[in-house]
Amino acid sequence: MKISIVVPAFNEERLLGESLAQIKNAARAFTPLGWEWELIVCDNNSTDKTAEIARANGAHVVFEPINQIARARNCGAAAASGDWIIFVDADSHPSADLFADAANAIQSGKYIAGGTIMRMDEKIPFAPRMVVHLWNLASRWQKLLAGSFIFCDTEVFRKIGGFNNELFCAEELELSQRLKKFAKQNGKRLIILYKHPLVTSARKMRLYSAREHLSMLFKMIFNSRRVMRSREQAHLWYDGRR
């Protein structure tokens, strides 16, 4: 068994080094199983030292010139040689326990893909804390994958066409629906791990005001199609604030 760990990264010089260190430490969970693993970073047209930092940390670096998270993940996946792919965001820290849980799910043979619940890396206000809590509940209930951590059978991922390159946000939710359909047709399932949550950055809570978050929420509720298909409308993901 070989695992490909894919990290999409756009101007992540501040956080990428620590994230890759955490990912490599977590990957030691594969050693007792005799599994191989590789680390791939997709430089999504960065203008900082993202690619340099990735190479210094032993990652194989690929380049995607179009600044779009779906394309970055797909570019990294195209270079993957593993039987399974684990997508981890550049601002997230998986633990060895989380990787071990994913390995157990893979070994069971019951699942084609999975994700995990999340917790923030710092204390956040009550309202966003409740949003994270509600997301975790919805994720487990509806088997919705958070883009910050997804593991998927490589053959299945490629067979269904990977992430939708027309979407600039919520691409992981659209992928979740296609994966669930494929799983049902093939007698398999998706799983959301919950014992060891992914630790991910709360920086968006700091970088954007409550007003900006509410504005984005209303746009997603009332005109989600337009937001999902426009880089300008999905600016919280693309305006470069770090």
In short:
This protein is an alpha/beta fold. The chain is 44% helix and 22% strand.
Write structural notes for this entry.
With 242 residues, the chain is of the alpha/beta class. The termini are far apart. The longest helix has 19 residues, at 210-228. It is 44% helix and 22% strand. The protein has helices spanning 16-26, 50-56, 69-78, 96-108, 126-142, 154-159, 171-185, 203-207, 210-228, 235-238, and strands at residues 2-9, 36-43, 60-63, 84-88, 92-93, 111-120, 149-153, 189-200. It has a single domain, classed as Spore Coat Polysaccharide Biosynthesis Protein SpsA, Chain A. Helix 1 (16-26) links the parallel strand 1 (2-9) and strand 2. The protein has ten helices and eight strands. The chain has an eight-stranded mixed β-sheet, with helices on both faces.
Shape: globular
DSSP E strands, number: 8
* Low-confidence spans: none
Give the C-level CATH assignment. Answer: Alpha Beta
User: Number of helical segments?
Assistant: 10
Helix content: 40-55%
Distance between the termini: 36 Å
Residue share in β-strands: 15-25%
Query: In the CATH hierarchy, what is the superfamily?
Result: Spore Coat Polysaccharide Biosynthesis Protein SpsA, Chain A
Rounded to an integer in angstroms, the radius of gyration calculated over CA atoms is: 17 Å
Biggest β-sheet, characterized?
8 strands, mixed
As for the number of domains, it is: 1
- Mean pLDDT score: 95
Could you tell me the CATH topology label: Spore Coat Polysaccharide Biosynthesis Protein SpsA, Chain A
| Secondary-structure element pattern, one letter each | EHEHEHEEHEHEHHEHHH
Structural class category: alpha/beta
What is the CATH architecture descriptor? Alpha-Beta Complex
Main sheet strand line-up: 3-2-1-4-7-6-8-5
